[in-house]
Amino acid sequence: MKYLVIAAAVALLSGCAARGLYNWGGYDDALYASYKDPTKAEALRTKLETHIAAMESAGQKVAPGLYAELGTLYFQAGAKSRAAEFYAKEQKAWPESSQLMTALINNIQRTAATEAEKK
């Protein structure tokens, strides 16, 4: 009986370890490709959008940092308001990121206000 319990525990734990906690949707490979070739940043953005939309429609939790990564890609492309939307989603999904996301959102808002004053 003792061996049966140990075997069941090992099988259960190894099954959990193989699956992973979150579905990253090939994020690591796409990120690496975009670092190697910055022209692939658009492909990374598209891949993240597709993956996040699929996760949200399936009612699954998006992996930590993916909203923020997509927001940063929008920020780099000049779509600052869109970036702020994804930073806010990251903040809501992962409260531990609140300070960083708040700082990034505030920076975007401050920059937008400064640009509006110059016009």
TrEMBL record:
Pfam families: DUF4810 (PF16068). InterPro entries: UCP020555_TPR-like (IPR014508). Keywords: Signal. The keyword Signal applies. Residues 1-19 form the signal peptide. This is DUF4810 domain-containing protein. It comes from Ramlibacter alkalitolerans.
